[in-house]
């Protein structure tokens, strides 16, 4: 048996981050905000002065955006919880919380029990790792019986494998052999811990939720065969040795947030996928270079170096090795960066990558409320520094009786441009529009979509501070997006929609479309600027206080009563240190969209991210995900068997990502 040693790759790859790849001269959001403030006569006397001028004077909005007098303001009736650095979950008085379906929970097949010694094949029948975006699909309208569908963004190999015990591994390290190869079963286990879990759950008469063995239970992983659909399918961009006709690919990666279609299917986003690929070609074109793939012989987990010669592994080496693309995997990365549609009610159906929604680091996708006879509209953010926000509008109208995923295969993809007067416009990424012509390097629609970022660069979209989750207010139609942070924005690069240089704390933007959601113009403002007691402002222009200071807004969801749920993702590399110490562990808050009131609802255990939130239809059970508890464990601590978290089991257990089940003691509506 080969000996395991500690394996590492470049820190940027290891963290899942892309190297900066946007070299365009497009305007920064911070520049636009600076100009907007100057237009209103606000002096630049420091961040607090600038923010106060912006938030307290109110931005010039149309009546359609500002006047919502006929809508009821949602109630937020709980006592806020305090900041916490403890290794547990805290919810308000009068609420109950328990952990549920941690990584490794059996759901299908022979129901293999959780153990670190579980095989790669066992993992294909267990809940994946690093829980993220999530939705509850009720069965027959029930609030006590349904399918919970959740993403698994990535893995922490040191906790995944028993073979890692005793090695000096930080959160990004992995076991490898002395020759640099990796154990093939460990790689299969990591692939199968990625992807999506679909599991039937049911509430017992005693109120506890449990997994139900059911034919609908299944895993979608980094190995699952998938169909390509839309303008890019069957083009030369995606032809590979596996699929010479460009119609199929295998697997989905780094699934962060999600979306739910008006026809009740699930969309999984492919976010930081590019780091998984090696490519030793000297010349790498924009289809990969603009997404952070550089000439290198390494990938995030070195899957291409598995010690078994099999294309399930070698496809992660995108180097040109054959006489044509049909003889190697040079095009394999072009089959990633899409939104993946999964029908949870059809376990035999193949997932479909919908290419007209664009190719980038999709954080997730949100749909505007579907209107009979009108186009389907969906929004998505590109979660990387200085990247963009997009919108898709279908060509065909929504008809509830016949609607399906094909509506996402024809339409127009737009990218957002924010102006310093509070207006904005959607720029079409379509052949012949805004100079997207063969003469300018965009051959056709497929070429534009494979190169979505390059097309957005060309038309002049606004560079944003890492667009994350979005949500649509069901009452006003306003669209919200979290902009989590951007510490690489320098002085002078500020913009009205991205107002801070070295933006460590993030903010939330919102806009109102002109006319319908399919319109090409909008008006925007900032909903909250996150930060500590000094460098923050709420909608009323006040600093945040002990009950609601937060930073790095990420997850976002607006419930049917219009409460805005905000989740945070302070990086484990800085959590509870320096300027971030005041925020404690990651948390979830809830905001009133009318008044801007914000209260902290939940704090999580050590080293985690709070992500993914949904309720049952009756809003009396809430599901929330806790991702990577214990990620702050150092390499030395891990080697000594000492972990920074033992959540959810406690004692000496290894930490495991899991879902929270939250209810009120009086059986009432969550958050009210």
TrEMBL record:
Protein name (record)? Tat pathway signal protein
The uppermost taxa in this organism's lineage are: Bacteria, Pseudomonadati, Pseudomonadota, Gammaproteobacteria, Oceanospirillales
> Which residue ranges does UniProt annotate as crossing the membrane?
none
Organism, scientific name: Vreelandella nigrificans
Q: Which SUPFAM superfamilies match?
A: Calcium-dependent phosphotriesterase
């Amino acid at each position: 048996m080969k000996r395991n040693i500690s394996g590492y790759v470049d820190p940027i790859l290891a963290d899942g981050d892309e190297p900066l790849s946007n070299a365009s001269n497009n305007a920064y959001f911070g520049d636009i905000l600076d100009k907007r403030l100057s237009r209103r006569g606000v002096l630049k006397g420091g961040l607090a002065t600038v923010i106060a001028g912006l938030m307290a004077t109110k931005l010039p909005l149309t009546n359609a955006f500002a006047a919502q007098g006929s809508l009821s303001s949602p109630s937020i009736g709980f006592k806020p919880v305090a900041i916490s650095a403890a290794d547990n979950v805290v919810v308000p008085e009068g609420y109950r919380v328990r952990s549920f379906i941690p990584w490794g929970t059996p759901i299908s097949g022979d129901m293999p029990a959780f153990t670190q010694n579980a095989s790669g094949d066992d993992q294909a029948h267990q809940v994946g790792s690093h829980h993220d975006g999530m939705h509850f699909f009720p069965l027959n309208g029930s609030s006590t019986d349904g399918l919970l569908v959740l993403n698994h963004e990535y893995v922490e190999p040191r906790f995944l494998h028993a073979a890692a015990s005793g090695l000096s591994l930080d959160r990004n390290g992995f076991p490898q052999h002395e020759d640099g190869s990796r154990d093939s079963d460990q790689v299969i286990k990591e692939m199968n811990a990625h992807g999506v879990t679909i599991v039937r759950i049911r509430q017992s008469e005693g109120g506890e939720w449990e997994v139900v063995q059911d034919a609908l239970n299944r895993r979608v992983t980094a190995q699952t065969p998938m169909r390509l659909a839309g303008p890019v399918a069957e083009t030369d961009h995606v032809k590979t040795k596996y699929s010479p006709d460009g119609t199929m690919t295998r697997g989905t990666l780094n699934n962060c947030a999600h979306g739910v279609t008006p026809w009740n299917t699930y969309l999984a986003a492919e976010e930081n996928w590019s780091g998984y690929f090696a490519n030793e070609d000297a010349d790498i074109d924009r289809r990969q270079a603009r997404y952070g793939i550089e000439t290198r012989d390494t990938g995030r987990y070195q899957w291409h170096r598995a010690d078994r010669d099999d294309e399930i592994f070698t496809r992660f080496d995108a180097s040109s090795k054959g006489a044509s693309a049909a003889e190697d995997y040079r095009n394999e990365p072009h089959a990633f960066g899409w939104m993946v549609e999964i029908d949870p009610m059809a376990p035999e159906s193949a997932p479909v990558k919908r290419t007209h929604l664009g190719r980038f680091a999709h954080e997730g996708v949100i749909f505007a409320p579907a209107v009979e006879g009108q186009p389907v509209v969906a929004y998505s953010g590109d979660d990387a520094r200085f990247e963009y926000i997009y919108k898709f509008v279908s060509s065909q109208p929504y008809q509830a009786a016949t609607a399906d995923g094909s509506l996402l295969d024809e339409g127009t993809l737009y990218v957002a441009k924010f102006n310093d007067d509070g207006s904005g416009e959607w720029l079409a990424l379509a052949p012949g529009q805004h100079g997207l012509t063969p003469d300018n390097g965009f051959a056709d629609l497929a070429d534009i979509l494979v190169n979505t970022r390059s097309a957005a660069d060309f038309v002049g979209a606004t560079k944003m501070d890492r667009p994350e989750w979005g949500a649509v207010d069901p009452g006003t139609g306003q669209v919200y997006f979290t902009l989590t942070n951007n510490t690489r924005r320098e002085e002078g690069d500020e913009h009205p929609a991205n107002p801070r240089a070295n933006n460590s704390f993030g903010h939330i933007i919102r806009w109102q479309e002109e006319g319908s959601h399919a319109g090409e113009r909008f008006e925007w403002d900032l909903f909250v600027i996150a930060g500590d007691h000094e460098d923050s402002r709420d909608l009323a222009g006040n600093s945040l206080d002990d009950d609601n200071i937060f930073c790095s807004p990420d997850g976002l969801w607006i419930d049917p009563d219009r409460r805005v749920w905000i989740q945070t993702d302070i990086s484990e590399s800085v959590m509870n240190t320096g300027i971030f110490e005041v925020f404690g562990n990651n948390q979830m808050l809830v905001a009133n969209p009318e008044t801007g009131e914000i209260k902290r609802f939940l704090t999580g255990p050590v080293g985690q991210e709070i992500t993914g939130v949904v309720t049952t239809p009756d809003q009396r059970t809430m599901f929330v995900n806790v991702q990577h508890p214990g990620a702050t464990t150092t390499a030395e601590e891990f080697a000594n068997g000492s972990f920074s978290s033992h959540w959810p089991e406690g004692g000496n257990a290894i930490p495991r990502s899991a879902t929270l089940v939250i209810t009120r003691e009086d059986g009432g509506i969550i958050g009210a």
